[in-house]
Structures are given as structure tokens and as C-alpha cells.
Amino acid sequence: MILALTLTLLGLTLLLFGLKTLRNGLEKFAGSSLQQTLLKITSTLSKGFFTGMVATGLLQSSTALTLMVVSFVDAKLISFRNALGLILGSNIGTTITPQILAFPIKEIAVWLILHGLIGYVILKNKKRYLFSALAGLGIMLLSLSILETAMIPLSELPQVQSWLQQIGHNNFLAVLAGTVLSALLHSSSAATGIAMVLTEEGWITLPTALALLFGANIGTCFTALIVSYFTSRAAQRVAIFHVLLNIFGVIIFYPFLTPIADLISLLGGSLSRQVANAHTIFNVLSSLIVLPLLPYATRLLEKY
After folding, report:
1. Number of domains within the chain
2. How far is the C-alpha of 304 from the C-alpha of 296, rounded, in Å?
3. CA–CA distance from 203 to each of 163, 200, 208, 281 (Å)?
4. Per-residue H/E/C for the chain
5. Which of 8, 97, 107, 236 has minimal CB crowding within 10 Å?
């Protein structure tokens, strides 16, 4: 059992390290041009929306983009209203990583790591950072394999079985668990990866996985919310909007967890793919529903 716990800790550590390596590699490859692009292409709501999607796809973190946007608004480089489009787009861009992790390519994790490291060492231009990102992806895939191995003996622990039964019979507890997990890991992508493993191994059902995903989207907002406390009022509004956006999405879709899960299962694919698809659909629909409501949300937040 000690070995299983050790493997679980190792898997979680590698998952976070791989995500950070992937993010840093892509961010350094984009360089300062990414920030310059964010500043230039935010003149309208639609431009900000698509820029937010692309930027988060590059950063692989809605938290990182939100922190960047908070700093831009605090420095008065971007207006509060234009910043909201970036935040909406970021919720869609952050779904890329789980979709990649859902592919059955864990067996080539070591190949990705080795080629990524070799390319990073050999190349001396900016392309080396793409290989660094490749190594990060390989590390994440390897971490999921380690977690799957570790969870077999852990499933025999009475405490683990009791906890899984509780969240399996109470979706609200599952939402809270996802919120706490994502807040602790500072990443909804990492929390989603864990939910994918739990579902694939039969520990939780698809509706419970959806509830965890709902909570993960809320938990990932806390880092930017805490940081924004020390910024201007306009910058604080950006972080508050990010939280309210995800809470709004949970309120809308929470009553329909089981029908949504049934619909997702009809799309087919492995259980990991179904969880990734659910994450994508939830984020896309939440953002698209809020998009036409932005003028009202802006006026409401500006009263704060």
C-alpha cells in the first residue's frame, strides 16, 4: 500500500511538472510576441474572444492567461470591458490539453520525452522550446500511466471506497471535491486528467466525473482571484468575472448531469475521451451562452 501511495504522489507530481513544462515551452516559443499580440488584438469583444482561445491554447492554462489579463488591466493597458472577451475565450482554449490526453498514446510517452529532450539540447533557436513542450506532454502521459497503476491497490482501501461512494451518490459533494482539487493543483487540466483516470478505471461514473469537472472549472479561478486582491478595482473585476462565469455554467448544467452524461456516451469513444468531450462541451456552451450577456455582466460588475 505504501508503494501505491508513493506511485500516486509520483504520478501527481509528474502530472503537474509535465503541465508546467508543456506550458513554459509553448510560452517561451511564443515569446514576448504573445503579450504584444494580446495588447494589439483586443480592440473589440470578438477579437478578444478569439485571441483568448488562441492564447490559452498556447499557454495551456486559463489561470496563466487570467493572471496576465489582470496585470494588463491593472496597468491600464487593456480596458475592463475588452478583457472579458479574453476570459471567455480562455475557457474554450483550456480544453485542448484534456483532448490530447484522451488519445490512446500513453505507450509512446517515453518516446515523446526522449525526442523532446534531444531536440531541446541539440537546437539553439526558438524551436527548441517546442521540443521542450513535447517532453512536457510525454511526462503528462507517463504520469497518467503511473496513476492508473497506483490506483489498482488503492481501490481496496476502505477510506478510498467510502469517499468514492459518497461523491458517487452526491453530485454536489463531487462538485466541491473538484473545486478543492483544482484549487490545490492550480490547474483544471490536471484535475480533468485525474477525473479521466478515475473514470477509465471504473472508480467513478461519467455523471460523477462531470460533477468533478464542474468543480474543477471553479477551483482554477482562485489563484487569479487571490492575486487580484492586491490590484486595482478594475483588475479585481476581471478575476471576479472569471469565477462568476464558471459558477454560472455550473448552475445552468448541474440539474442535467445525468442527461448530459447519457448524451456524451452516445458520442462514443473511450471513457477518457467521453470525459474530455464533456469538458470541452461544457466550457464551449458556457462561454457561448454568456457571450451575448456580456454587456449586462459588464454593467453589473462595474457597480462593484
Report:
1. 1
2. 13
3. 11, 8, 10, 23
4. CHHHHHHHHHHHHHHHHHHHHHHHHHHHHHCHHHHHHHHHCCCCHHHHHHHHHHHHHHHCCHHHHHHHHHHHHHCCCCCHHHHHHHHHHHHHHCCHHHHHHCCCCHHHHHHHHHHHHHHHHHCCCCCHHHHHHHHHHHHHHHHHHHHHHHHHHHCCCHHHHHHHHHHHHCHHHHHHHHHHHHHHHCCHHHHHHHHHHHHHCCCCCHHHHHHHHHHHHHHCCHHHHHHHCCCCHHHHHHHHHHHHHHHHHHHHHHHHHHHHHHHHHHCCCCHHHHHHHHHHHHHHHHHHHHHHHHHHHHHHHCCC
5. 107
Q: Which amino acid is at 75?
A: A
Can you tell me the distance from the alpha carbon of 279 to that of 252, in angstroms, rounded to the nearest whole number?
Answer: 15
The one-letter code for the residue type at 79 is: S
> How far apart (Å, rounded) are the C-alpha atoms in residues 166 and 173?
7
| Predicted confidence (pLDDT) per residue in 285-297, tens digit | 988 898 888 888 8
CB of 297 closer than 8 Å to CB of 84: yes
pLDDT tens-digit series, residues 86-141: 888 888 888 887 887 777 666 678 888 999 999 999 988 888 888 998 898 888 87
Supply the range of the domain harboring residue 129. 2-301
All three cell numbers of 67: 493572471
For residue 150, what are the contacts with CB-CB under 8 A and spacing of at least 6?
4, 5, 7, 8, 10, 11
Residues 70, 232: Cα–Cα separation, whole Å: 9
- Whole-number Å distance between alpha carbons of 131 and 277: 27
Question: From the centroid of its chain, how far is CA 129?
Answer: 21
| Rounded (10°) CA dihedral 209, 214, 218, 221 | 70
